[in-house]
Design a protein that fits this description.
Elements lengths: L1 E2 L17 E3 L2 E8 L3 E2 H14 L3 E4 L5 E6 L3 H10 L4 E3 L4 E3 L13 H15 L11 E4 L11 E10 L2 E10 L5 E7 L3 H14 L6 H8 L2 H6 L4 E3 L1 H7 L11 E4 L5 E6 L4 E3 H13 L4 E5 L3 E7 L4 H10 L13 E3 L13 H11 L4 E4 L11 E8 L2 E8 L7 E3 L4 H13 L4
Helix pairs in contact: 1-2, 1-8, 3-4
The chain binds iron/sulfur cluster.
């Protein structure tokens, strides 16, 4: 495995290969792949997950890969097996680039290249030791599959400006909620991100951009890059997105070389190593070159021909993967829950398929109030508590519930919520 940038990992907060995190089903490790994983390397990763762990593999909302069920004895062997594979991965401050960076037909600049430059700059400054491990940067190159739904502390997004590409800067949230800061030249992207991360680091290791915006406003970020700004944030917020139509990562997307990428979803963010090996076989049969792990709990298959793509989609569908953007399972977000996570009061993941059948809006099922699987608000959040399932309307796992019901009454409670919602009462 090629690690592109390194920084010390803190045990229990950022479970990389060198610092697995204890969970209810053993140790968990997380990889941040930064490019296409060849099908051979992907199959070898799956085999190692089966051999050394319990075979459960997850893709997170940010597009990292998690392998579960390792032990103190097997984790070093797993790390050694993965290190021998040709998988480019990153460490340190999470710097996310859109999934088709460098290969997408519609991108305005290569977000992956800028992300790599930024990781190198951050590694030299060892800034990750001064930041919460949750602090992240999202770089969106303006292609079809963007990062609009992914929350990040610092956002850099492609913006057309006078025939050139500039970077729209925002802080503290997903694209719709982040506070606009202004626009900088593409060539100032690394300098801008480093300075904005410094603003967060200066306020303490527990700080996040959204908290700073709430307490002090976005002006502290604006001041830090005032000499780099080329336009004001009010104008930028109107121009943001350049009228780009956002599409689901699920489905086919054109690549610059004339081939196709095909996004498929993992139901409730997880799958089994053996099934994923079968998916790699199907991709190989269809002539694909590899997979990219992507935000929103998806894998994107790279290098399909228009003729072969439908057969791959049929095979992926048969294996239980999500191949349609309107699949009801995409409406339900679930954490691992009990018994996998020791903090869980409910079996969130096991409940998810049943809840997906009832779901007419986005529902987040969280085993406890920590809300690991989704930080932001959704139409209905269900939180496991010692007293039952807390129901929260239009809020997040940390908000106040409107009701608490026993797990067995969840389907009826969800149906009642849907009726109220339809009638405009929530
Ligand atoms: S939200 Fe709670 S129960 Fe679910 S994985 Fe996180 S800590 Fe565990």
């Amino acid at each position: 495995m090629t690690v592109l940038a390194t920084a010390p990992l803190r045990r229990g907060t950022c479970p990389g290969l060198s610092a697995p995190m204890p969970t209810g089903d053993g140790l968990l490790v997380r990889l941040y792949p930064t490019g296409t994983i060849s099908l051979a390397a992907f199959a070898a990763l799956c085999a190692a997950a089966r051999r050394h762990g319990n075979g459960v593999i997850e893709v997170t909302s940010r597009g990292s890969i998690q392998v579960r069920g390792l032990s103190e004895r097997s984790a070093p062997d797993f790390a050694a097996d993965i290190a021998a594979l040709d998988i480019a991965a990153a460490d340190g401050v999470p710097v996310l680039a859109d999934v088709l960076s460098g290969i997408g037909a519609e991108e305005m600049f290569d977000a992956g290249a800028l992300a790599a430059d930024l990781r190198r700059a951050l590694a030299q400054r060892a800034i990750s030791t001064r930041l919460s491990p949750k602090v992240s940067v999202a770089i969106d190159g303006g292609g079809a599959i963007g990062l609009a739904a992914v929350a990040a502390d610092i956002r850099l997004g492609a913006q057309a400006r006078d025939g050139n590409v500039a970077l729209h800067i925002a802080v503290g949230g997903d694209e719709s909620r982040a506070a606009p800061v202004g626009t900088v030249a593409l060539s100032d992207g690394v300098r801008t991100a480093v300075r904005l991360l410094d603003v967060i680091a200066q306020r303490g290791r527990e700080q996040r951009a959204r908290n700073i915006v709430a307490a002090e406003g976005a002006s502290v970020f604006r001041s830090a890059i005032s000499d780099l700004l080329i336009s004001d944030p009010v104008l930028d917020s109107r121009l943001r997105g350049n009228g780009r139509k956002m599409v689901s990562p699920i489905g086919a997307h054109a690549l610059r070389d004339g081939s196709l990428a095909c996004g498929i979803g993992l139901a409730f963010g997880h799958s089994d190593a053996t099934v994923l090996e079968q998916l790699a076989d199907a991709a190989s049969d269809a002539g694909a070159s590899g997979f990219r792990a992507a935000a929103s709990r998806t894998f994107t298959t790279i290098g399909l021909t228009a003729e072969a793509a439908p057969d791959f989609v049929i095979a992926a569908n048969k294996l239980g993967f999500i191949t349609r953007a309107d699949d009801p399972r995409r409406r339900v977000i679930a954490c691992a829950g009990a018994p996998v996570c020791a903090s869980a009061h409910i079996a969130s993941r096991a409940l998810a398929p049943r809840i997906a059948k009832e779901a007419e809006c986005t529902i987040h099922i969280s085993g406890c109030a920590k809300g690991c699987a989704h930080a932001g608000p959704v139409a209905l959040t269900i939180v496991g508590t010692a007293d039952g399932c807390a129901l929260i309307g239009n809020g997040s796992a940390r908000d106040a519930p409107f009701a608490v019901v026993p797990t067995g009454e969840l389907p009826a409670a969800i149906a009642a919520f849907a009726k109220k919602r339809e009638a405009g009462h929530v």
